[in-house]
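Consider the tokenized backbone below.
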């Protein structure tokens, strides 16, 4: 995988540990920004809303609603005993974080977009693990709906995970198209 000319990481000296260290620092700073924004927003909800309390923000479309999710996405596994949920979700999060750090070290130099992707996913995972460790459930509060049809409530951490995964998938699609375009080009492209 080659670097793109428009990529800000390209301007870094790519040989040596200094650039790699800078990229990892960037990764951890972005990840911590996601964690801090997630935890501050949840703390605000916990301090200002009773459980199930809701405030309409955009009529017919968006509420802030204080909810707890004891399961995974959309309440999956919520009927498992608490201790097994805790062990399961914390183990999955640790495995995911280790995998993200490994992928970041390998792919982070290729594009700032990989760093953003992995940092958003990691920050979201850490934010939700903190909730599980502190409360035994995840604090959800963003409630989007149309009429009587509500999307499952979510939080900033969930948003970070979704944005990170979307960036990663788009990178994979664009890189595949770029590689196919280079392979079918009559003139070889030098990088």
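A designed sequence for it:
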């Amino acid at each position: 995988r080659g670097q793109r000319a428009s990529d800000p990481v390209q301007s870094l000296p790519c040989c040596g540990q200094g650039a790699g260290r800078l990229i990892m620092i960037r990764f951890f700073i972005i990840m911590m920004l996601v964690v801090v924004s997630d935890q501050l927003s949840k703390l605000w909800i916990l301090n200002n809303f009773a459980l199930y309390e809701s405030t309409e923000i955009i009529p017919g479309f968006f509420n802030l609603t204080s909810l707890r999710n004891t399961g995974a996405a959309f309440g999956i596994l919520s009927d498992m005993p608490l201790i097994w949920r805790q062990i399961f979700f914390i183990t999955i999060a640790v495995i995911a974080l280790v995998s993200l750090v490994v992928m970041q070290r390998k792919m982070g130099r290729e594009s700032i977009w990989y760093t953003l992707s992995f940092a958003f996913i990691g920050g979201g995972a850490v934010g939700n693990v903190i909730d599980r460790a502190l409360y035994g459930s995840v604090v959800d509060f963003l409630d989007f709906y149309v009429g009587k049809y509500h999307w499952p409530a979510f939080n900033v951490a969930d948003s970070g995970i979704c944005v990170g995964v979307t960036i990663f998938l788009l990178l994979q699609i664009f890189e595949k198209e770029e590689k196919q375009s280079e392979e079918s080009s009559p003139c070889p492209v030098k990088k």
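The two ends are 10 Å apart (CA to CA).
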